[in-house]
Amino acid sequence: MLPRIVGAAAGGLLRPAGALAARGFAAAAAAAAGPHFCIVGSGPAGFYTADKLLKKFGEDARVDIVEALPTPFGLVRSGVAPDHADTKNVINQFTALAPGDVSNMSSSLLTASLFRFCCSQNVINQFTALAQDPRISFFGNVRVGRDLSLDELRSYYNAVVLSYGAESDRKLSCPGEDLPGVYSAREFVWWYNGHPAYRDLPIDLSRTHSVAIAGLGNVAVDCARVLLKSPDDLAKTDICSHAVEQLRKSAVREVHLLGRRGPVQAAFTPKELRELLSLEGVQIKMDPEVFKVSPACEAEMKATRMKKRVFDILSKALAEPKQGDKSLYLHFLRSPAEVIGKDGHAAEVKLEKTRLEPAGEGKDQKALGTGEFETIPADLVLKSIGFKSVGIPGVAFDSRRGVIPNQAGQVYTEDGSSFEPGLYVCGWLKRGPSGIIGTNLVDAEQTVDTMASTKDSFRPVEAQQPGAAGLRQLLNERGVQVVDFKGWQAVDAEEVRRGAAQGKPRDKLTSVDEMLQIAAAA
Ligand code: FAD
Ligand code: NAP
Fold this sequence. Notes:
Belongs to the ferredoxin--NADP reductase type 1 family. The protein is an alpha/beta fold. It has three domains: 242 residues, Rossmann fold, CATH 3.40.50; 217 residues, FAD/NAD(P)-binding domain; 40 residues, no CATH class. Helices cover 35% and strands 19% of the residues. The strands form four sheets. Strands 3-2-1-4-18-17-16 form a seven-stranded mixed sheet, with helices on both faces. Strand 12 and strand 13 form a beta hairpin. The structure holds flavin-adenine dinucleotide and NADP nicotinamide-adenine-dinucleotide phosphate (NAP). Flavin-adenine dinucleotide binds next to helix 2, strand 2, helix 10 and helix 17.
């Protein structure tokens, strides 16, 4: 639970009255002719939005990125699997946007190099390069809704883009869901990837024999692979040391992936599936019955090539069994009905068999319960059925879908009758928890296009000191230690230094206090 904001911090009380607002606008104009933008959240949506804003609004634009953690890059750091290092390299692109190294580079040169970066797989390099732009300031360790309210933040800027991702989870809504031993995949992933809030998750793999993972998406595949892969191989990645320690003493022999629909409807992608099915020493177990597909499933595969490829990969794995001392079960047409506990801890999952019901032209087939049940052993249960965003005070929120209601990125007012001036949204918070890193680039383009076409509705800056200077002063008065990009780079260098000693690309720091100490000394 986040600490509540009290006193002056609560209601935008720092916002000056009308006359001051006009003065603030004049001050803004004096400080920089272009607009002041703030982006909340430094994941792919935040960084891609920053890039697009600079391109769209020109040399005078200023973009500040406010991030709750001392570390940037969102799920590229805390989500992307440790053994998928190529994907993470997007971070270097973001870093190039931060002030410092390339401040002498002309804008067009920067754009050209960014283009090259974007074309490569190297996402971390791309974002890192982006963060070097002198027009960008990074405010790490600042949580909107805790350190300052959204209303307060908005008073310093002409426009604010919310891209703070998804920090909660969809619910299974079945009995036993809250038993000890049941976690969301988000919590498990944030544990092995070193998110500071989840490093102490009480995972004990030495007492875990069988793991059930609900959901058939790529996150479920990541979790299964980490649990089944050789710890020696994982130890060479940037996975956290505490996770390697657990994996080395793991007693896990079975992982069960649970899909409420069939092999044709699985959400994982062919490359990720193939990688999982080819893990050394892991037998693949599936019920051949579920591969008898209906005409509706045939039609789905005909319409979407990827579904056909996934189906073919699964069929091949069924036809060519391999040996191993560990087993991966893929249960299709099975919906988790209950987590059954023993001695107050998860022990089994009761599954209801389902059947597919065509839902009409162009609509997805639905899973319907058949009233037949079976149970599987599971002393660890991971719910990998989707992340979910949370609302913050000061902006409308659709709690059913877990998104901020918007039209092409422009945020609706609470009553939905008009738009919030100068307030926009991007990424998972805008469209829900799906899509790969690159999806957020296209999404950022849409939001920034909307901003350009609605720029006449941007708000004048109300605070006396606009943008970064004003925000820094407020946070300073409140005793918030801001980690700037230089501070993050000091943390980064320390992680790389510690990693080198262990033969891994980095050894992640997971304590905010330790990161703050290193950043302060930078
Ligand atoms: P996020 O990346 O979540 O960024 C949001 C940021 O906002 C975070 O840094 C967070 O700390 C910050 N924040 C939250 N609240 C606040 C607040 N109140 N104030 C300030 N800051 C705040 N895609 C791929 O292409 N390849 C992959 O291999 C891949 N692997 C994935 C693995 C997992 C486990 C998951 C969950 C997703 C993966 N994805 C992958 C998808 C990709 O990570 C997402 O599409 C992308 O990260 C979404 O970007 P975002 O900016 O909307 O959110
Ligand atoms: P996802 O792809 O949406 O998969 C969610 C899964 O949960 C689906 O199989 C869904 O089944 C199931 N599900 C949802 N609600 C359920 C319920 N109530 N009961 C049972 N099952 C339920 O989500 P994700 O795996 O969290 O991934 C999020 C995004 O990140 C995706 O776009 C993914 O591609 C991306 N990602 C990419 C990579 C990569 O590129 N390597 C890695 C990780 C994540 P139904 O289809 O039946 O709803």
